[in-house]
Amino acid sequence: MVKHIVFFKLVDASQANKNAVKERIMSLKGNIDELIHLEVGVNFSPEERAFDLALISDFKTKEDLQAYAIHPLHVKVVEFLKSIQTLSKIVDYEY
Fold first, then answer.
1. C-alpha dihedral over 4, 70, 28, 42, to 10 degrees?
2. Is 41 exposed, middle or buried (CB count within 10 Å of its CB: 0-12, 13-18, 19+)?
3. What InterPro entries does UniProt report for this protein, alphabetically (predicted)?
4. I want to staple 41 with a disulfide (CB 3.0 to 4.6 A). Which of 15, 47, 54, 65 is the partner?
5. pLDDT tens-digit profile of 4-13?
6. What local confidence, expressed as pLDDT, does residue 31 receive?
């Protein structure tokens, strides 16, 4: 199994915007066969170093993660996220 985690820092970190971004990401759930599990958490920590959102997803294999990465629906969401974020960090690992 493969875990794919992404943290996002948004240009507009208002609660309404964070919720809208969460909904946009969650639209992938059930629409990409390789995506086994998807959750998006909205940060509530007031710490300056905190990120605004966390995406956590699971895949059976590295190849499934690669297929997800180039899936047209995912690419569309990534393009949107690039336009509204200031920073993102990714961790991928097998478990």
1. 40
2. middle
3. Dabb (IPR013097), Dimeric_a/b-barrel (IPR011008)
4. 54
5. 999 999 999 9
6. 98
Task: State the residue range of the domain holding 76.
Answer: 2-94
Upper half-sphere CA count for residue 18 (Cβ side, 13 Å): 17
Contact criterion met (CB below 8 Å) for 7 and 51? yes
Residues whose CB is less than 8 angstroms from the CB of residue 46 and which lie 6 or more positions away in sequence, other chains included? none
Task: Starting at the earlier edge strand, list the strands of the sheet with 53-59.
Answer: 37-42, 53-59, 2-10, 85-94
- Provide φ and ψ at 7, rounded to 5°: -110, 140
Total tally of structural domains belonging to the chain: 1
Rounded to 10 degrees, the C-alpha dihedral 85/75/4/47 comes to 10
pLDDT digits (tens, 9 = 90+) for 13-36: 999 999 999 999 999 999 999 999
The Cα 71–Cα 7 span in angstroms is 20
